[in-house]
Amino acid sequence: MYPIHANQPIGIFDSGLGGLTVFRQLQAQLPQESVIYLADTARVPYGPRSSQEIEVFVREIIAWLLKCRVKMIIVACNTSTALVLERLRAEVPVPLLGLILPGARQAVQLGQRVAVLATAATVKSGAFQQAIQEADPRALVQVVACPEFVPLIEAGAMDPLAPQHPQLQRIVAQYLAPLQQWPLDVLVYGCTHYPLLEPLVAQHLGSIPRVDPARSAVTAASQELKVLGLTHSGPARYRFCVSGNPRQFQRVARPWLPPVSRIEQVRLPVVQPVPPEE
Q1: Which one from 68, 146, 191, 241 is the annotated catalytic residue?
Q2: Is the pTM of this model over 0.85?
Q3: Which member of 68, 77, 146, 241 is catalytic?
Q4: How far apart are CA 26 and CA 21, in angstroms?
Q5: What domains, with CATH codes, occur in the chain?
Q6: Residue 191 appears among annotated catalytic residues
Q7: What is the pLDDT of residues 205-237, one digit of tens each?
Q8: To bridge 59 with a disulfide, which of 90, 92, 248, 271 should be the other Cys (CB 3.0-4.6 Å)?
Protein backbone atom coordinates (compact mmCIF):
# COMPACT_ATOMS: atom_id res chain seq x y z
CA MET A 1 0.00 0.00 0.00
CA TYR A 2 1.44 3.35 -1.06
CA PRO A 3 1.08 5.87 1.80
CA ILE A 4 -0.06 9.39 0.92
CA HIS A 5 0.17 12.30 3.37
CA ALA A 6 -0.37 16.05 3.02
CA ASN A 7 3.25 16.88 3.85
CA GLN A 8 4.63 14.89 0.89
CA PRO A 9 5.81 16.86 -2.17
CA ILE A 10 4.12 17.22 -5.54
CA GLY A 11 6.11 15.67 -8.39
CA ILE A 12 6.45 17.53 -11.69
CA PHE A 13 8.28 16.15 -14.71
CA ASP A 14 9.09 17.26 -18.21
CA SER A 15 11.60 16.40 -20.90
CA GLY A 16 13.49 19.59 -20.03
CA LEU A 17 13.04 23.09 -18.66
CA GLY A 18 9.56 23.70 -20.15
CA GLY A 19 7.88 22.26 -17.08
CA LEU A 20 9.25 25.20 -15.09
CA THR A 21 6.28 27.12 -16.48
CA VAL A 22 4.12 24.68 -14.50
CA PHE A 23 6.37 25.04 -11.45
CA ARG A 24 5.97 28.83 -11.58
CA GLN A 25 2.19 28.49 -11.65
CA LEU A 26 2.35 26.12 -8.70
CA GLN A 27 4.51 28.60 -6.82
CA ALA A 28 1.93 31.31 -7.51
CA GLN A 29 -1.20 29.30 -6.66
CA LEU A 30 0.12 26.84 -4.07
CA PRO A 31 3.14 28.54 -2.48
CA GLN A 32 2.95 26.30 0.59
CA GLU A 33 3.40 23.05 -1.38
CA SER A 34 6.77 21.31 -1.70
CA VAL A 35 7.87 20.19 -5.16
CA ILE A 36 10.24 17.67 -6.71
CA TYR A 37 10.94 18.65 -10.32
CA LEU A 38 12.56 16.19 -12.71
CA ALA A 39 13.79 17.17 -16.17
CA ASP A 40 14.71 14.27 -18.44
CA THR A 41 17.40 16.32 -20.13
CA ALA A 42 19.41 13.27 -21.17
CA ARG A 43 16.64 12.40 -23.65
CA VAL A 44 15.13 15.76 -24.61
CA PRO A 45 13.30 16.42 -26.95
CA TYR A 46 10.44 13.93 -26.73
CA GLY A 47 8.54 15.30 -29.74
CA PRO A 48 10.29 13.25 -32.47
CA ARG A 49 10.21 9.99 -30.46
CA SER A 50 7.85 7.06 -30.78
CA SER A 51 5.01 6.44 -28.35
CA GLN A 52 6.74 3.21 -27.23
CA GLU A 53 9.93 5.10 -26.29
CA ILE A 54 8.00 7.80 -24.48
CA GLU A 55 5.99 5.25 -22.50
CA VAL A 56 9.20 3.64 -21.26
CA PHE A 57 10.63 7.05 -20.30
CA VAL A 58 7.47 8.05 -18.46
CA ARG A 59 7.30 4.76 -16.58
CA GLU A 60 10.91 5.22 -15.46
CA ILE A 61 10.26 8.78 -14.30
CA ILE A 62 7.08 7.87 -12.43
CA ALA A 63 8.86 4.97 -10.73
CA TRP A 64 11.58 7.37 -9.54
CA LEU A 65 9.08 9.97 -8.31
CA LEU A 66 7.15 7.33 -6.38
CA LYS A 67 10.40 6.29 -4.67
CA CYS A 68 10.64 9.95 -3.62
CA ARG A 69 7.19 9.56 -2.00
CA VAL A 70 5.30 12.23 -3.93
CA LYS A 71 1.56 12.62 -3.26
CA MET A 72 0.62 13.78 -6.79
CA ILE A 73 2.32 13.85 -10.19
CA ILE A 74 1.80 16.60 -12.74
CA VAL A 75 2.87 15.53 -16.22
CA ALA A 76 4.31 18.82 -17.46
CA CYS A 77 5.01 17.34 -20.88
CA ASN A 78 2.11 17.44 -23.30
CA THR A 79 3.75 14.89 -25.59
CA SER A 80 3.72 12.40 -22.71
CA THR A 81 0.18 13.41 -21.76
CA ALA A 82 -1.05 12.94 -25.32
CA LEU A 83 0.56 9.56 -25.88
CA VAL A 84 0.56 7.65 -22.60
CA LEU A 85 -1.14 9.40 -19.66
CA GLU A 86 -4.54 7.71 -19.90
CA ARG A 87 -2.95 4.30 -20.29
CA LEU A 88 -0.86 4.75 -17.14
CA ARG A 89 -3.32 6.54 -14.89
CA ALA A 90 -4.94 3.39 -13.51
CA GLU A 91 -1.52 1.92 -12.61
CA VAL A 92 -0.24 4.90 -10.59
CA PRO A 93 -1.18 5.03 -6.87
CA VAL A 94 -1.28 8.85 -6.73
CA PRO A 95 -3.28 11.40 -8.75
CA LEU A 96 -1.71 11.78 -12.20
CA LEU A 97 -2.61 15.06 -13.90
CA GLY A 98 -1.94 16.31 -17.43
CA LEU A 99 -2.32 19.71 -19.06
CA ILE A 100 -4.23 19.02 -22.27
CA LEU A 101 -7.78 18.80 -20.91
CA PRO A 102 -7.50 21.87 -18.62
CA GLY A 103 -5.96 23.84 -21.48
CA ALA A 104 -8.71 22.80 -23.90
CA ARG A 105 -11.45 23.81 -21.48
CA GLN A 106 -9.86 27.19 -20.90
CA ALA A 107 -9.44 27.79 -24.63
CA VAL A 108 -13.09 27.27 -25.58
CA GLN A 109 -14.13 29.76 -22.93
CA LEU A 110 -12.29 32.38 -24.98
CA GLY A 111 -13.52 31.50 -28.47
CA GLN A 112 -14.45 28.79 -30.96
CA ARG A 113 -11.63 29.24 -33.48
CA VAL A 114 -8.68 27.72 -31.66
CA ALA A 115 -5.10 27.28 -32.81
CA VAL A 116 -2.62 25.03 -31.02
CA LEU A 117 1.18 25.11 -31.23
CA ALA A 118 2.59 21.71 -30.23
CA THR A 119 5.30 19.14 -30.81
CA ALA A 120 5.06 16.86 -33.82
CA ALA A 121 4.10 13.88 -31.64
CA THR A 122 1.34 15.79 -29.85
CA VAL A 123 -0.07 17.02 -33.16
CA LYS A 124 0.04 13.52 -34.64
CA SER A 125 -1.79 12.09 -31.60
CA GLY A 126 -4.81 14.35 -32.17
CA ALA A 127 -5.14 14.74 -28.39
CA PHE A 128 -5.58 18.52 -28.35
CA GLN A 129 -8.04 18.49 -31.24
CA GLN A 130 -10.12 15.83 -29.49
CA ALA A 131 -10.04 17.56 -26.11
CA ILE A 132 -11.03 20.94 -27.56
CA GLN A 133 -13.92 19.51 -29.60
CA GLU A 134 -15.12 17.49 -26.60
CA ALA A 135 -15.11 20.72 -24.58
CA ASP A 136 -17.05 22.49 -27.36
CA PRO A 137 -18.25 20.48 -30.39
CA ARG A 138 -18.66 23.73 -32.33
CA ALA A 139 -14.95 24.58 -32.04
CA LEU A 140 -12.77 24.80 -35.12
CA VAL A 141 -9.20 23.70 -34.42
CA GLN A 142 -6.01 24.32 -36.33
CA VAL A 143 -2.79 22.71 -35.07
CA VAL A 144 0.77 23.63 -35.99
CA ALA A 145 3.69 21.30 -35.36
CA CYS A 146 6.73 23.23 -34.12
CA PRO A 147 9.58 20.70 -33.93
CA GLU A 148 12.38 23.27 -33.77
CA PHE A 149 11.18 25.18 -30.71
CA VAL A 150 12.19 22.79 -27.91
CA PRO A 151 15.80 22.14 -29.05
CA LEU A 152 16.41 25.89 -29.42
CA ILE A 153 14.86 26.73 -26.03
CA GLU A 154 16.86 23.95 -24.35
CA ALA A 155 20.01 25.39 -25.95
CA GLY A 156 19.32 28.75 -24.28
CA ALA A 157 17.79 30.69 -27.17
CA MET A 158 15.20 32.38 -24.90
CA ASP A 159 17.64 33.54 -22.21
CA PRO A 160 16.22 36.98 -21.30
CA LEU A 161 19.72 38.17 -20.41
CA ALA A 162 21.05 37.42 -23.92
CA PRO A 163 20.29 39.03 -27.30
CA GLN A 164 17.26 37.60 -29.05
CA HIS A 165 18.19 34.57 -31.07
CA PRO A 166 17.82 35.39 -34.80
CA GLN A 167 17.16 31.78 -35.82
CA LEU A 168 14.38 31.48 -33.26
CA GLN A 169 12.83 34.76 -34.40
CA ARG A 170 12.77 33.46 -37.98
CA ILE A 171 11.25 30.11 -36.99
CA VAL A 172 8.54 31.74 -34.84
CA ALA A 173 7.56 33.92 -37.80
CA GLN A 174 7.51 30.84 -40.07
CA TYR A 175 5.28 28.76 -37.79
CA LEU A 176 2.86 31.60 -37.04
CA ALA A 177 2.49 32.81 -40.63
CA PRO A 178 -0.42 30.45 -41.51
CA LEU A 179 -2.31 31.51 -38.38
CA GLN A 180 -2.14 35.16 -39.38
CA GLN A 181 -4.29 34.27 -42.40
CA TRP A 182 -6.92 32.56 -40.23
CA PRO A 183 -9.64 34.34 -38.20
CA LEU A 184 -8.19 33.23 -34.88
CA ASP A 185 -9.94 33.66 -31.50
CA VAL A 186 -7.39 32.06 -29.20
CA LEU A 187 -3.96 30.40 -29.31
CA VAL A 188 -3.03 27.49 -27.03
CA TYR A 189 0.56 26.78 -26.06
CA GLY A 190 0.46 23.03 -26.53
CA CYS A 191 3.91 22.42 -25.05
CA THR A 192 5.12 23.69 -21.67
CA HIS A 193 8.25 25.12 -23.30
CA TYR A 194 6.24 27.42 -25.54
CA PRO A 195 5.02 30.05 -23.01
CA LEU A 196 8.69 31.03 -22.75
CA LEU A 197 8.29 32.30 -26.34
CA GLU A 198 5.54 34.74 -25.36
CA PRO A 199 7.53 37.92 -26.21
CA LEU A 200 8.17 36.65 -29.75
CA VAL A 201 4.65 35.30 -30.26
CA ALA A 202 3.16 38.63 -29.15
CA GLN A 203 5.07 40.41 -31.91
CA HIS A 204 3.12 38.40 -34.50
CA LEU A 205 -0.29 37.83 -32.91
CA GLY A 206 -0.74 41.05 -30.96
CA SER A 207 -3.70 41.00 -28.59
CA ILE A 208 -5.11 37.58 -29.59
CA PRO A 209 -5.58 35.70 -26.29
CA ARG A 210 -3.04 33.02 -25.50
CA VAL A 211 -3.70 30.06 -23.19
CA ASP A 212 -0.97 28.61 -21.01
CA PRO A 213 -2.52 25.30 -19.85
CA ALA A 214 -0.24 25.29 -16.80
CA ARG A 215 -2.47 27.81 -15.06
CA SER A 216 -5.69 25.81 -15.31
CA ALA A 217 -3.84 22.52 -14.66
CA VAL A 218 -2.49 23.82 -11.35
CA THR A 219 -5.95 25.11 -10.45
CA ALA A 220 -7.26 21.58 -11.06
CA ALA A 221 -4.42 20.16 -8.95
CA SER A 222 -5.32 22.54 -6.12
CA GLN A 223 -8.96 21.45 -6.22
CA GLU A 224 -8.02 17.77 -6.20
CA LEU A 225 -5.70 18.21 -3.22
CA LYS A 226 -8.53 19.87 -1.30
CA VAL A 227 -10.99 17.09 -2.16
CA LEU A 228 -8.49 14.44 -1.05
CA GLY A 229 -7.53 16.30 2.12
CA LEU A 230 -3.90 16.55 1.00
CA THR A 231 -3.37 20.33 1.11
CA HIS A 232 -0.11 21.19 2.87
CA SER A 233 0.31 24.28 5.07
CA GLY A 234 4.02 24.72 4.39
CA PRO A 235 6.79 25.62 4.49
CA ALA A 236 7.53 24.67 0.90
CA ARG A 237 10.73 22.91 -0.10
CA TYR A 238 11.97 22.52 -3.66
CA ARG A 239 14.19 19.90 -5.21
CA PHE A 240 15.34 20.10 -8.85
CA CYS A 241 16.76 17.05 -10.59
CA VAL A 242 17.91 16.17 -14.10
CA SER A 243 18.84 12.98 -15.89
CA GLY A 244 21.49 14.80 -17.93
CA ASN A 245 24.06 17.50 -17.20
CA PRO A 246 23.11 19.57 -14.12
CA ARG A 247 25.43 22.47 -15.01
CA GLN A 248 23.92 22.79 -18.47
CA PHE A 249 20.40 22.81 -17.02
CA GLN A 250 21.27 25.38 -14.36
CA ARG A 251 22.93 27.63 -16.95
CA VAL A 252 19.97 27.60 -19.34
CA ALA A 253 17.15 27.46 -16.77
CA ARG A 254 18.53 30.03 -14.30
CA PRO A 255 16.10 32.84 -15.31
CA TRP A 256 13.14 30.65 -14.30
CA LEU A 257 14.57 28.87 -11.26
CA PRO A 258 14.21 30.02 -7.66
CA PRO A 259 17.46 30.34 -5.74
CA VAL A 260 18.60 26.75 -5.18
CA SER A 261 21.84 25.37 -3.84
CA ARG A 262 22.29 22.82 -6.59
CA ILE A 263 20.71 20.81 -9.39
CA GLU A 264 20.94 17.07 -8.75
CA GLN A 265 21.76 14.52 -11.38
CA VAL A 266 19.75 11.34 -10.84
CA ARG A 267 19.83 7.87 -12.32
CA LEU A 268 16.40 6.70 -13.39
CA PRO A 269 15.36 3.09 -12.79
CA VAL A 270 15.33 0.86 -15.84
CA VAL A 271 11.83 -0.21 -16.85
CA GLN A 272 11.28 -2.83 -19.51
CA PRO A 273 8.98 -1.90 -22.38
CA VAL A 274 5.41 -3.11 -22.04
CA PRO A 275 4.47 -5.33 -25.01
CA PRO A 276 1.71 -3.86 -27.18
CA GLU A 277 -1.73 -5.36 -26.72
CA GLU A 278 -2.74 -8.04 -29.22
Answers
A1: 191
A2: yes
A3: 77
A4: 9
A5: 10-98+215-265 (3.40.50.1860), 100-212 (3.40.50.1860)
A6: yes
A7: 999 999 999 999 999 999 999 999 999 998 999
A8: 271
